[in-house]
Amino acid sequence: MSDEAHSSRPGAAGEPSNRPIEPGELGGYERARKALEEARAAARAAGKSVGRGRASPVRRTPRGAQTRKRWSGSGPDARDPQPFGRLVGGLAKDRGWQEKIGEGTLFGMWDNIVGADIAAHAKPIELRDNVLHVQAESTAWATQLRYVQSQILAKIAAAVGDGVVKSLRISGPKGPSWRKGERHVRGRGPRDTYG
C-alpha cells in the first residue's frame, strides 16, 4: 500500500478519529487492533491490570509464607523421573491389560516360574476362564503335578499376580490315533468284539 492510502484512513499515524468508522472501511488487521483497544479500555475501566497477561493484579505473598518449594529435595517427588516398569504397569492397569500381560508372562517365562525340572516335563497349553491347561509328557508326570498343584499355583500367583490363574487342569499325553493318512471315513462306531 502507498503512504497516501495509510494517511487517508481514519486513525492512521496515531491520529484519533472523531467520526464513527464503517465496518467496510477497516481491513482485518485494523479491525483486530480496534477490538483489542476496546477490550483494553473496558478492562482499565473495570480496574484490571492491562498488558501483563493476567486478569487481575499480581498478588504478592509474604516472604516466609511461600506455598511451594522451588527444589525437589533429597526424597522422591512426583516430578522426578519414574521407572519405566511402573509407568507401563500403571498404563496396563488403566487400560485393563493386566490379564493379557499376565498370560503372556506365564507362557513366556514358564520355565522360570515353575522351575526347570517341571518345565522339562510339562508345558502350558492354554489359559481359558482363569483355568490353566497343562500337558505332561507322561501319565506319571501328570500324577506328580497333581500332587504339587497348590505349590505351582502359589508360584504362578507370585510371578503374574493373583486371579490370573485360579486352577490347573493337568492332563497326560494324548492317546495314539488309529487314523491313517489324510483322508478317512468314519467307521461303524464302537461294537462288541468280545463275544
TrEMBL record:
UniProt feature, compositional bias: Low complexity: 42-55
Protein name as catalogued: UPF0232 protein GORBP_101_00130
InterPro entries according to UniProt: DciA-like (IPR007922), UPF0232_actinobac (IPR023007)
Recorded superkingdom: Bacteria
Source organism: Gordonia rubripertincta NBRC 101908
Comp. bias regions, Basic and acidic residues: 28-41
Region (Disordered), start-end ranges: 1-89, 171-195
Protein family according to the UniProt entry: Belongs to the UPF0232 family.
Pfam family, one: DciA
Skewed-composition ranges (Basic residues): 60-71
